[in-house]
Amino acid sequence: MIAHLTGTVAGIRLDSAVLDVNGVGYLVHATPGTLGTLRHGATVTLFTSLVVREDSMTVFGFADDDERAVFETVQSVSGVGPRLALAMLAVHSPEALRAAVAGRTSRRSSACPASAASPRSGSCSS
C-alpha cells in the first residue's frame, strides 16, 4: 500500500489531480473537497489508498488520514466499491459514514448519494 504521497501539484481535474513525486506523475482520484484545497505548483501531502484490480491500479487521495480510513472501512459494506466510497465521502462527513457502517442510522441508504441508492432495495450500488 502507498500510505501517502508528497509532491508538487502538476494538474487538477474535476475528479483527480496529478501529483509529481520526484519526476513521477501520480494520477490521484479525490473528492471535490480535497481537490479544492490543492493549488497548481504547490507542494502537498495526500494520504492515499491504492486499489489493485485485475486491469488497473488506482490511487485515491485524501486530505487527512481519517478520511482515508473511513474510505477503506466503507468498502467493507457489500456492494460498495472505491468509486462509490469516494462519492459518499464527497457528500457525508467521515463521522456520519462511520456511524452508518456501524448500523447506527435508521436508513441504510442514508449513507449514499441519492443517485447511488437502488430504487428497489434502498441500498447502495456501484
UniProtKB/TrEMBL annotation:
Top-rank taxon: Bacteria
Pfam short name (any one): HHH_5
Biased composition (Low complexity): 108-126
This protein's UniProt keywords: Cytoplasm, DNA damage, DNA recombination, DNA repair, DNA-binding
SUPFAM superfamilies linked to this entry: Nucleic acid-binding proteins (SSF50249), RuvA domain 2-like (SSF47781)
All copies of domain DNA helicase Holliday junction RuvA type, residue ranges: 1-61
Region (Disordered): 102-126
Protein name stated in the entry: DNA helicase Holliday junction RuvA type domain-containing protein
Organism, as annotated: Luteimicrobium album
Lineage of origin: Bacteria, Bacillati, Actinomycetota, Actinomycetes, Micrococcales
